[in-house]
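Give me the fold.
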Amino acid sequence: MAAFILIALIAGFGYYVSLRIHPYRRCPVCRDTPGRHWGGIYSYAYRRCRACGGYGRKYRLGAKLFMGASDRPGGSGNS
């Protein structure tokens, strides 16, 4: 049982360090294409992605839960 707890603590600490180093994930809507949402009819036209605000990335779930990250990268979370 002690070995299981030790392994869980090491894995949890590794996950926390991973969140501190790499808090972002690829935006599921624009798929990291510099925050662009391409037009369906006029395929050369684009607008900023609504899901990520044009950043092309979103915070990972753990970064939101454990570190209080806002929904948009670079945001303070107070707005």
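The mean pLDDT is 83.
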